[in-house]
């Protein structure tokens, strides 16, 4: 019972947060999500390249940015 209640509360909080997010950003909400995703992928790519260099591997392909 306790777990079910906690799950229900977590779901309501997530739904409220999503509704608030879309109310604040309106039509631009999708663009904000895409921007956050793009920045996250770029940061992860830089982190993984550094890790490869530390391990002694050289990334394949031409690097055209960063």
Describe what you observe in this structure.
This protein has 66 residues and is mostly helical. The chain has one domain. The chain is built from two helices and no strands. The radius of gyration is 20 Å and the shape is elongated.
**How does the helix and strand content classify structurally?**
mainly alpha
Q: Whole-number radius of gyration?
A: 20 Å
Tell me what portion of residues adopts beta-strand conformation. Answer: under 5%
The total strand number stands at 0
What overall form do the CA principal axes indicate? elongated
- Biggest sheet features: none
- Identify low-pLDDT runs: none
Q: How many helical elements?
A: 2
Structural features:
single chain, 66 residues, mainly alpha, 0% strand
Topology of helices and strands:
Layout: H1 2-25, H2 29-55
Gist of the model:
The protein is built from two helices and no strands. The chain has 66 residues and is mostly helical.
């Amino acid at each position: 019972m306790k777990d079910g209640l906690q799950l229900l509360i977590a779901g309501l909080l997530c739904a409220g947060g999503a509704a608030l997010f879309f109310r604040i950003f309106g039509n631009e909400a999708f663009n904000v999500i895409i921007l956050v995703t793009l920045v996250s992928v770029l940061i992860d790519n830089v982190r993984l390249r550094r890790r490869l260099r530390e391990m002694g591997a050289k990334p394949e392909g031409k690097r055209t940015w960063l």
